[in-house]
Amino acid sequence: MKKSWLSWFFAALSAVYLIPLLVLLINSFKTKEAITDQVFALPNQETFVGIKNFVRGVTSIRFFQSMGYSLMITVLSVALILLCTSMCAWFLERVGGRFCRGIYFFFVFSMAVPFQMVMFTLPFISDRLGLNSPWTIPLVYLGFGAGLAVFIFTGFIKGIPIEIEEAAMIDGCNPLSTFFRVVLPIMRPTYISVAILQAMWVWNDYLLPTLVLDKTKGYYTIPMAIQSATTDSYGSVDYGAFMALLTLAIIPIIVFYAVGQRHIIKGVISGAVKG
Q1: Most exposed among 79, 128, 235, 251, judged by the fewest C-beta atoms under 10 Å?
Q2: Which fold has domain 45-271?
Q3: 122: part of which helix (H) or strand (E)?
């Protein structure tokens, strides 16, 4: 009975968290006046506008170009984070010693550093190093996302018996072959967990691309493009197009999360063990 009540409680709590998404979806099909005056009301014959908000929103910005930039930045950043941090965590855990422990604590400490401490110097450094394009900004995301990823991967690797790797080396595998053929397949649940967490952050991030990307060349991610198109020349907000664009922007990451969400808890718990 207690378990049943807990299930109902968490189901109700989940429904509460879904309310903002439902409100966003409902208002994306309503007129601007209805969105302002009747936020929680369902569309009716007078307020329902079909896909007009979506058409107006897509045509008001370079939607598909911005979507392409966001997709490219997200895929490259997540791939770079996964590859570099997993190999780094494996090296730090297997080599050990004071130097490796010191490097590991630097990664952990980076998670406690507020972004505001570096945001003022970040644009200057990024411009000087040429990291202000969609092809190079993944290196910036690697720096900011490495702390959490190394922490999770290191915790998971502690639970992998080293005898498996020793057996692979006896069979003729070098360190790289051991990692990619033996360790990486075992880390699959944690890989998926880290990929989802990092993808949600990179896809939805607004501040870092705004500071780093060269907007004079038209480099706009989806959050940046939506923000730039929310007002007209008179400062009036087109809430209908705004809601429609937000709906389109969150669909890819929701689909990605839904596909891999069953691996999140397993991967995070495995990566959080002390060993």
Answers
A1: 235
A2: MetI-like fold (1.10.3720)
A3: helix 122-129
